[in-house]
Design goal:
Elements: E1 8-16, E2 20-25, E3 28-33, E4 49-54, E5 64-71, E6 74-77, H1 83-92, E7 104-111, E8 115-123, E9 126-135, E10 137-140, E11 142-146, H2 152-166, E12 170-177, E13 182-187, H3 193-204, E14 207-216, E15 221-226, E16 228-229
Parallel strand pairs: 9-12, 11-13, 12-14, 13-16
Antiparallel strand pairs: 1-2, 1-4, 2-3, 4-5, 5-6, 7-8, 8-9, 10-11, 14-15
């Protein structure tokens, strides 16, 4: 996944009204769009280094968008709008070794009356749904965690994946860790015990868990390597 333009560096000041952040670029304070609805727990520290993009769209009220925050000297991708683009690139380039090269990939596929899964992959006599979750939280060295707040939407997706399994689909939950400093991943049961318990039950019912981290460069973010899931 490539950035459209070269990123601009700055410093984080504060977040407010969920979608707004104040950032400092050189000696100027600007308000930028925050493309992340989560709590961003542990990342919102005054003075943290950030990278942002600037839009040339004259209709946009906020010209800048927050893309990356530095946490514990590691880059963390916070733009959740890029999550599926990173995974789509990975699927197309066979970076996720659990899937064959010759597969058909369809994003945003409707299932049931009110659910859309992030990807449907298929080939002859095979079909699978993939739901993707963006991960930014790390409270301990080498450990990434999800969620960073209670997630009713996450519960719904697990239940719907289980319903899809009953209809013959293989089911995957892919945790995309948008950072490169973690060797392990686990569910933050102290933040959302219901989600942790449901996920544990779903794994016993053939829900496949995939965890991958990301590699950052000045040009973009790509899926990197597998991270061990700690149950």
């Amino acid at each position: 996944m490539k950035f459209d333009d070269k990123l601009i560096s700055g410093q984080f000041i504060k977040r407010y009204k969920r979608f707004f952040v104040d950032l400092k670029i050189k000696d100027k304070i600007i308000t930028a769009h925050c493309p992340n609805t989560g709590s961003m727990l542990g990342l919102l520290k005054n003075g943290n280094k950030v990278w942002l993009s600037k839009s040339n769209n004259p209709k946009r009220k906020l010209k800048y968008t927050l893309q990356i925050i530095e946490d514990k000297k590691s880059k963390v991708g916070v733009n959740t709008h890029l999550t599926n683009k990173i995974v789509f690139h990975a699927l197309n380039n066979n970076l996720i070794k659990e899937f064959d090269k010759d597969i058909e990939i369809k994003p945003e596929v409707k299932f049931g009356s009110n659910t859309r899964f992030d990807f449907l992959i298929s080939k002859k006599n095979y079909k699978a749904f993939i739901e993707v979750k963006n991960v930014t939280l790390s409270r301990k060295e080498n450990l990434a965690e999800f969620p960073d707040a209670v997630t009713s939407r996450g519960l719904k997706h697990i239940n719907e994946l289980l319903n899809a399994s009953k209809k013959g689909y293989e089911i995957f939950l892919l945790f995309l860790i948008q950072r490169d400093d973690c060797k392990f991943f686990k569910i933050a049961e102290d933040i959302d015990l219901k989600y942790s318990n449901l996920l544990s039950r779903a794994v016993k019912k053939k829900l496949n868990i995939l965890c991958y981290d990301c590699k950052f460069s000045s040009k973009g973010i790509i899926l990197n390597q597998k991270v061990k899931f700690k149950i």
